[in-house]
Write a structure and sequence with these properties.
This protein is of the alpha+beta class. Helices cover 42% and strands 26% of the residues. The protein contains five helices and six strands; from the N terminus they run αααββαββββα. The protein has a six-stranded antiparallel beta sheet with strand order 1-2-6-5-4-3. Helix 4 (86-99) packs across helix 5. It is flat, with a radius of gyration of 26 Å.
């Protein structure tokens, strides 16, 4: 048989070799090897644990609470904006709320909060949008909750799109 020909793998190469390799890492012989393994495992865990929080978008964080027509419905979301000043984001969020048709916008600059109303049902019972923008490290975290009263309904996809447009305005 030529030297470069493919040969069938034996049981020991398929099963035992990887097992021996991982066993040697987990049950390291010297204290230095054990410490190196623990350090590498801790570093991997820290990196993977922190990554999802940074990468989540407004759409990923969107959640709906309540029972349609029976209780008030809360549509919640949040997003972090690295490098954005929270005071400037508050002004941009106010503009985003106006663009989406909200009125009676109350601004609490000290608390970093906005509250607005929107009447679209014709019932005289407005829906409320509350947004906060606060500094978190070197980023600004924007939290939003859109509240509709009991007896009212709204399509979650439509609300998600509109709220995320307002939240995204923090970056402007």
């Amino acid at each position: 048989m030529p030297a470069n020909a493919c040969t069938p793998l034996s049981y020991s190469r398929l099963i035992l070799e990887p097992y021996r390799f991982w066993r040697s890492i987990v049950f390291a012989e010297s204290p230095g090897e054990t410490m190196l393994f623990r350090l590498a495992a801790g570093l991997c865990l820290a990196v993977f644990a922190a990554t999802p929080a940074l990468a989540q978008s407004c759409q990923d964080n969107f959640a709906v609470e309540g029972t349609p027509l029976i209780t008030a419905m809360n549509f919640r979301t949040s997003q972090n904006f690295p490098g954005v000043d929270h005071r400037k984001a508050l002004s941009s969020l106010r503009s985003g709320m106006l663009a989406e048709g909200f009125s009676n916008i109350a601004v609490d600059r000290e608390g970093g909060a906005l509250t607005a109303l929107q009447e679209t049902s014709g019932s005289g019972r407005p829906q409320t949008l509350r947004i906060t923008a606060r500094k978190v490290g070197n980023a600004t975290r924007v939290d939003a909750v859109f509240i509709i009263q009991a007896g009212q309904v709204a399509d979650a996809n439509t609300v998600r799109t509109a709220i995320c447009r307002v939240v995204a305005s923090a970056r402007l």
